[in-house]
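Hey everyone, long-time lurker, first post.

I ran two proteins through the pipeline my lab uses and got sequence/structure pairs for each. Pasting them in order. The first:
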Amino acid sequence: MTQFARARYVGLHHPNTEDSEMLKLIVSCLIACGLLLGCTAESTPSGAPSGGHSHEHVHSAKCGCTIEGVEECGNYVEVGGSYVPLVGVDSISEQEFCKKTGLLVELEGEMKDGKFHAKKFGYHDHD
């Protein structure tokens, strides 16, 4: 094998530094996306449901008037460490959680447009 052919063969089987860095970046992005989606598929008070995934779990709930930055009444549930508006529950008033503390609710639904769209709602028994 000539020196040129050997260099070409080695070049095809051993990516140069630039290609190697790009491959590392792509793999890192794929891993990060997988971890993000994998973590958010677990919906607990500290889990974050992602769009398109259905979840049924217990969430902390409070009125928006007690949340810094919101400070006006509305029903909010904790998802992924943040409180987001709860929508799609016709059986409760717009101020259902106002002046109540320590609320836990059982929800099934999905995150969409920064809001939790509930398909099922119920209060969680503290026992």
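...and the second, right after it:
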Amino acid sequence: MSRTPRDRRSAAFAMSIVGLCLVVLSAYQLRDSVRLVQHGVRAEGRVERIEQRRSARGRRRAVAHVTVDGALPGACVISAYDLSVGQTVEMVFLPDDPSVCRRPTPMALWGGPAFGSGAGSLMFLGALAYLERERRRSVG
């Protein structure tokens, strides 16, 4: 069963929208990363508890709730694959919005924005290139 050109154009259009959404979401993550680097406070935190959560794809994800000086800075939840309860963790968070926190590693700060913007840009530009190729085929 082959797809019609209209179905392929619709799929390419949807792919361009998804790519654009990925770029926008990555911009928000980038904003938080820049704010953490410029205004973030580094602190040693203690892992209070670790929960297992299921992601949208059904994968298990471990998250740690971290306290700094005995108080939870907002709802700071970080990835906990390599952590155990009671372990001391270095983290960076915003004093005015403590729920924005990450571990101060390059991958934790810049990995999400880099991957999201790269993948979103490729999806968007690939869909536009496909649509342009189809337009030229139909004209010429």
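Reply from user beta_strand_b:
Welcome! Quick read of the second one: Residues 41-93 form a domain with the OB fold (Dihydrolipoamide Acetyltransferase, E2P) fold (CATH 2.40.50). Strands lie at 41-54, 60-67, 77-79, 88-93, 101-102.
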